[in-house]
Structure of Molybdopterin-dependent oxidoreductase:
Amino acid sequence: MEYNAPAGKNLFDNAKVVGKPTRRIDGPLKTTGTAPYAYERHDVVPGQVYGYVLGAGIAKGRIAAMDVSAARAMPGVLAIVTAPDTKPVGKGMGNTAPLFGGRDIAHYHQAIALVVAETFEQARAASSVIRVEYERQKGAFDLASAAPGAPLDTTRGGEPDQVRTGDFEAAYHAAYVQLDERYTTPDESHAMMEPHASIAAWEGEKLTLWTSNQMIAWNKGSVGDILDMEPDNVRLDSPYLGGGFGGKLFVRADAVLAALGAKAAGRPVKVMLQRPLIYNNTTHRPASIQRLRIGAGKDGRISAIAHEGWSGNLPGGSGENTVQQTRQLYAGDHRLTANYLATLDLPEGNAMRAPGEASGHMALEVAMDELAEKLDMCPVELRIVNDTQTVPDEPEIKFSDRNLVRCLREGAERFGWANRNKTPGGLRDGRWLIGMGMAAGYRNGPVGKSAARVKLDRRGRVTVETDMTDIGTGSYTIIAQTAAEVMGVPLKQVTVRLGDSAYPASAGSGGQWGAASSTAGVYAACVNLRRAIGEKLGFDGDAATFDNSRIAVDGGSFALTDAGALSATGEMTYGDFQDDYSVGTFASHFCEIAVDAYTGESFIRRMLSVCDAGRILNPVSARSQVIGAMAMSVGATLTEELAVDKRFGFFVNHDMAGYEVPVHADIPHQEVVFLDTLDPVISPMKAKGVGELGICGPTAAVANALYNATGIRVREYPLTLDKYL
Ligand code: MOS
């Protein structure tokens, strides 16, 4: 058995609630602005005061002197916490740079002081009179000059990250067509709407952080670690998040500084990282340089494929795995994939939505478009002939469920791909150049152990408690659907409580594992509650049918309320099925674009994604995930770039005016189709994630559409208009 589901029964075969289009139960709170975000939790503890973060003004070097005396004398100031002279604090799980620098500065805007005052304005004013003298050192800030000669990345598992199968070089040279191109992607910011924010309060030894965080159980431990205290004395509460995208996977400076500030001031302290600080203080998706070499036969079959990626990070930081999808997506006997990692002194690179794959597709899927053109072949057909049902480098490993070809065919048909103008730059509509592009997409489909508690009250209401987070994704709703289904109650009879470390530990929100994992944990808890009800009323809970707030058993029936008040916890755990199967999600993506022939400005006309991701738990929230990811893809392709100041080592455009993120209004028509697939091995939910699949490939579909419209192939992202003039 791969997971601990009760034998002989699949509760979702005739599902009434799971898989049905369901409006978000937190929707009214969100749309009326009344969902309480971390910084707005005015009512959780009285006497809250404000912290303002001071970031380092150099990228690399030392603090020679810091004078806070003038700041201390400013009105309203309660405490000033400065980085300790000796050792920096606050690395914690998953981070590379200390969250609170010591004498040594690791990157620009690393936090070096927190001013606590009665009001925000007082804290800000006082921070502006702190005098800091730095000894600046030279740093490495340019990936292009650091990349040549960079060693193979060893940050994932300690081994050099290179996989060779067959003889790439020989097969490449013998191939009928060859492609050898380089692509670059820039540093990108999560730029989520809700900044990182925390309120900290101490009660003796115990610390509570009302915070904005994706991973509660991880970070309860991490806060304990950073502050050198028992994790059991730490409570994290994060019921609503205004986006995370990986930027809130780990503890960040707001949480650590709020805790230290609250201790120093003897008052609860709230800290929101100021927007202009976020881009350099927190993490980002690292820039990449990628080289693709592909050799193929006349029929389009790939005989040789090499994908090499270069990225950079702070010393000790990990590299961006841009070749990940290339190890899964296409057949080909002779293969080389490798990641190289350079040392840079820019702010820390870390996980951002589909880390690795999001940028990897921006190279691989454009290279496939270029290869199709060399072969005079349809780009959809090229991908179909190179499909595989086993992992190319490890043929003994099968995909648990892979329907990429169906995605490609269905997408081509629905989008009207057959009508595409095949001559790049050859279709004009008044002042507009029109183009269509497509790409395939892959993102892995992980699951992780996840627990929940489910309570039944005397009125037959069901309450679910788990530390799962809803980062804007719809967790509340799919968890309510799962509990309603398994307990056989209407959706409105279910209450869901999330994000509190006092609840059972879930898998959290990351790596697009959240939906599949957290609902499986709720399923496990509900199965245990059914058993507990059966035990109380004298039947086998696994054999009974729970429906319509009633329970049918052999030779009788009960009302759910007959059970009285009961509660059960459960945890879904997993065997090692991922040794035998590669569990992935697949998609085809299509885009039609119009480019102003005079100014070079481009406008998306329509986009389509066809997704193969197992059971779709809620087509409404799943669609929202994908259309949001499509919009983020448009940003990655057309506008988003953290501009590096290569002299001083920081990101210049550190606000939402300079870092341009598209909105849905920029894309008039988005369509998402989900194949009705069920993953047979992943969990009893048979569901996989879509939140990161949605950003794997639409980027390249946009880039390929731009080429088809203009006849100009630009390989340096973002594809801004100046590159087409
Ligand atoms: Mo994701 S980048 O694991 O939130």
About this structure: DSSP finds 15 helices and 32 strands in the chain.
